[in-house]
Amino acid sequence: MSKFEAVSSSTPILLVGCGKMGSAMLGGWLKKGLGEDAVYIVDPYLDHIKENFPNIPKKQLHKEILTLSKEIHPSIIIAAVKPQMMDDALDALNSLDISKSVILSIAAGKTISYFEDNISRECAVIRAMPNIPASIGKGITVCVANDPVTEIQKKMCTFLLETIGVVEWIEDENLIDAVTALSGSGPAYVFYLVEAMAAVGETIGLSNELSRKLARQTVSGAGALLDASEDSASKLRENVTSPGGTTAAALDVLMSDDGMVKLIRRAMLEAKRRSKELAN
User: Fold this and answer.
1) What's the pLDDT tens digit per position in 70-120?
2) Owning domain of residue 45
3) H/E/C letters for each residue in the chain?
4) In contact, 185 and 155? CB cutoff 8 Å
5) pLDDT tens for residues 209-243?
6) What's the CATH code of the domain at 64?
7) Same domain for 193 and 234?
8) Are residues 155 and 214 in the same domain?
9) How does pLDDT run across 127-180, given as a tens digit for each residue?
10) Are residues 237 and 224 part of one domain?
């Protein structure tokens, strides 16, 4: 029995914004059994949607929320537009009957109170922070819900988000800023690590092409090993560190008092500060 059984053409999913993250989610839903007639999409650029999801009926593709039929009563509204476009999107959503809908927002910096203030205090809202590996189904999303969200709505949104990776729930929305600093922004830290390793590889004698390839494959391979192993990151590190060897020499630098932990702490605290600032 499909978990999408409760979603039908009369109570569809409404996806507002179908960029990289929205498209990744849509692809995951369809693979998991969501019927093409049970999702409506609003996005100003529909050509890529028509090309990548040709079986979705044209009547369910809209450039504006205001062109949706008033007879549509979405069960779940995925708010996936850019934060600066959210005001207009919420104004338009008020033209629909969304009294029984849950809003699942993946817009950075938009708090639960923002949706309550712009729609109603009684609206069910889930704030979610996914990260970019979700675009290939390898992400992690952290969610927090307000009081009106029911257990059924929470379970359905969990299932939707599990199509793009792991899902975790928290009770305190204030922790979203810390989540953003770690997992939300974290992939960029890893990408920069690859850049840094490649650049240093060149300075110690490797060609640009070889250095970039070695750095990229080393980090992606280490990530794959971490994902496949039941061992902790610390244990895996110890497994490749021979006493007095080359790795130990490098780790003496990275793990010094002024090493990587101090630098990452500074970076994450700044990301957390900026996340809090954007939400105000």
Assistant:
1) 888 999 999 999 888 999 999 999 889 999 999 999 998 899 999 999 998
2) 13-179
3) CCCCCCCCCCCCEEEECCCHHHHHHHHHHHHCCCCHHHEEEECCCCHHHHHHCCCCCHHHEECCHHHCCCCCCCCEEEECCCHHHHHHHHHHHCCCCCCCCEEEECCCCCCHHHHHHHCCCCCEEEEEECCHHHHHCCEEEEEEECCCCCHHHHHHHHHHHHCCEEEEECCCHHHHHHHHHHHHCHHHHHHHHHHHHHHHHHHCCCCHHHHHHHHHHHHHHHHHHHHHCCCCHHHHHHHCCCCCCHHHHHHHHHCCCCCHHHHHHHHHHHHHHHHHHHCC
4) no
5) 999 999 999 999 999 999 999 999 999 999 999 99
6) 3.40.50.720
7) yes
8) no
9) 999 999 998 999 999 999 999 999 999 999 999 999 999 999 999 999 999 999
10) yes
- Backbone φ and ψ for 107, nearest 5 degrees, come out as -85, 120
The whole-model pTM stands at 0.91
CA nearest to 240, candidates 231, 230, 232, 248: 248
C-alpha to C-alpha distance for 225 and 127, rounded to whole angstroms: 31
